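Support request from a user on the community tier.

User writes: "When I paste my structure tokens into the form, the page sometimes reloads and wipes my input. The last time it worked, I copied everything first. Here is what I submitted, just in case something in the input itself triggers the reload:"
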């Protein structure tokens, strides 16, 4: 048939992401719901000491990304860390890692599309929320069916809006702190960082308890590795994007939240809504809600866009390795895996139903579940990296183009830290259910592997298209 012939001839992704695209994809991937909404929950849990959680968590994320970057520069493949897990740890590890990342993206995207509906409700309160959810799913799905350059350009501009907004809020907040203005506010100084119960009002327990939300905020940064197969020059662009992670974390998380908590007592955030509304209200901007809404809508669209892109490319890569249905390899003429985009779109339709069923604490549950999936993926990246290094000779290790710093001590400490985060999820009553659900998901995947795929009954998963 002509269609099948075309599909067989066109089974490779096309490169179309420039250094500018990847730099802003990396920038925007870590600035989303976790910062604009989740930061309030983290602040309430740890107080100003949450800054330490972001610094420590950010350092761990940087090491994970350096490990992923080393593998991506060495071997840029569509399946990214899913493929690396399969190659260095075995097919089962690759299967679980790839599908867990896809699961993570679906969970996060469900929250993001629902948040989009809530944001639009501010402007159009009489329009049912599910209509906005349905509309954004079709819109983002259509964007992801275009050439990868369209995705890159869209992420560039959406990320630029977020960056400009945060920089503007930082400057405005610094003005209030040191000079005072807006509603005739006096200069607040930095005393709020330690005047309401101290810098760490809940002690180290509070810092540990905040790690779930903090790591959720960083989730998605691993999309840098996913872009490697479609980057024009991955040996150059991937290291550049990864090496800016520490600066991004310090500026967009630590400095931004420090400004927020210096402006207003940390224990008042829950009473006054999103912490990012506070600066605009404090400056007396009449259109504060509208300005913020534009920013958070841009953030949610960017997040949904990245979620569909990342999960789609992961499923495509797994399909090529026989770990997902071979129909996921179907590409449009522009080199886009259209079937995986459709699958993600259908999965996100569940958000329409969730709009009627979501309880008040659903964000913490979703964030914790996503945090578990994220940390699991990061652990597999670290283990894959260790396995890769173990298979290299001493001479080959010296020739690594983008090596992880202070290997193996620092990666081992990072691995230990990830174990602590998972343990914290189990210790906290609010997140324990998410940990249980995450472990059940891993168990389900293992059961599917041993009970179906490994026994040769998953014919549709045959990468070569032949039945076992």
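"...and here is what came back when it finally went through:"
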């Amino acid at each position: 048939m002509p269609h099948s012939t075309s599909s067989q001839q066109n089974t490779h992704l096309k490169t179309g992401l420039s250094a500018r695209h990847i730099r802003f994809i990396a920038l925007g991937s870590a600035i989303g719901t976790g910062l604009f909404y989740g930061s309030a929950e983290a602040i309430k849990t740890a107080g100003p000491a949450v800054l330490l959680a972001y610094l420590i968590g950010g350092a761990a994320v940087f090491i994970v990304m350096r490990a992923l970057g080393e593998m991506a520069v060495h071997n840029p493949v569509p399946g990214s860390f899913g493929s690396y897990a399969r190659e260095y740890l075995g097919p089962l590890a690759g299967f679980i890692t790839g599908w867990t990342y896809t699961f993570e993206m679906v969970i996060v995207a469900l929250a993001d599309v629902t948040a989009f509906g809530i944001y639009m409700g501010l402007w159009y309160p009489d329009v049912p929320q599910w209509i906005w959810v349905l509309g954004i799913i079709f819109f983002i799905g259509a964007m992801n069916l275009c050439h990868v350059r369209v995705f890159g350009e869209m992420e560039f501009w959406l990320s630029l809006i977020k960056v400009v907004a945060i920089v503007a809020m930082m400057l405005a907040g610094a003005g209030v702190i040191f000079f005072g203005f807006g509603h005739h506010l006096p200069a607040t100084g930095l005393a709020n960082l330690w005047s309401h119960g101290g810098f760490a009002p809940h002690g180290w327990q509070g810092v540990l308890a905040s790690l779930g939300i903090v790591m959720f905020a960083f989730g998605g940064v691993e999309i840098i590795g996913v872009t490697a197969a479609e980057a024009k020059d991955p040996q150059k662009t991937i290291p550049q994007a990864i090496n800016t992670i520490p600066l991004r974390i310090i500026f967009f998380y630590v400095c931004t939240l420090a400004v927020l908590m210096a402006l207003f007592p940390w224990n008042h955030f829950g009473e006054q809504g999103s912490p990012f509304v506070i600066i605009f209200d404090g400056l007396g901007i009449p259109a504060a809600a509208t300005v913020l809404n534009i920013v958070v809508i841009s953030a949610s669209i960017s997040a949904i866009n990245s979620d569909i892109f990342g999960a789609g490319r992961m499923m495509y890569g797994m399909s090529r390795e026989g770990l997902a249905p071979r129909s996921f390899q179907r590409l449009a003429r522009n080199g886009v895996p259209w079937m995986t985009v459709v699958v993600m779109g259908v999965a996100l339709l569940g958000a329409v139903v969730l709009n009627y069923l979501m309880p008040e604490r659903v964000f913490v549950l979703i964030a914790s579940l996503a945090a578990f999936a994220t940390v699991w993926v990061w652990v597999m990246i670290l283990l894959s990296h260790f396995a890769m290094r173990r298979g290299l000779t001493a001479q080959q290790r010296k020739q690594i183009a983008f090596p992880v710093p202070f290997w193996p001590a620092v990666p081992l400490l990072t691995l230990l830290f990830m174990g602590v985060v998972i343990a914290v999820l189990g210790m906290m009553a609010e997140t324990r259910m998410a940990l249980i659900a995450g472990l059940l998901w891993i168990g389900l995947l293992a059961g599917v592997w041993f009970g179906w795929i490994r026994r040769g009954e998953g014919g549709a998963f045959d990468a070569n298209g032949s039945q076992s």
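Agent notes: The reload is a front-end session timeout and is unrelated to the input. The chain has 22 helices and no strands. The two ends are 23 Å apart (CA to CA). Escalated to web team.
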